[in-house]
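Open question from group meeting: does this chain pack into something compact, or does most of it stay loose? Before anyone orders reagents, we agreed to write out a predicted structure and look at it together. Recording both the input and the output here so the notebook holds the full record.
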Amino acid sequence: KSAPQEIIASNAGNQYLLSSVTQLRLGVNRLAIEGHGGLTLAWHLFFIDFFSAGEGADCSAMPAEYCLGDKARFYEETSGKQNAFFMVGIERNAARGVRKLVLDTARRIEVEFGYSPGGSPWVPTSVTLLR
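Structure tokens returned:
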């Protein structure tokens, strides 16, 4: 409360970059199981957008490994000094919000987000695990 400008740095550094999967689980749990609104999940989806280059991004001025397109890195804490990461595919809705995440292409684990018609295209109102 005393430093609202720190919310993005704190959430990104202390949560998303530490364990993206845990943050996704938390958001899904709060929306789908506990019946809370989708704001926790919306924050997570914001960071997915923040850390992805987005479809059609001009990456000519950066090394190829930094141009993710419609993919994002998910981070996971390890016992070493550096966190591990893996790539997650992103499908977007008409408003360019995240509609679906493809977490594991080999086993085809996907998480799909629903949005209320006339509601915010950024705050999901439902979530479905697809296999």
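Observations to bring back to the group:
The chain has a mean pLDDT of 81.
Strands lie at 71-76, 84-92, 98-104, 109-114, 126-130.
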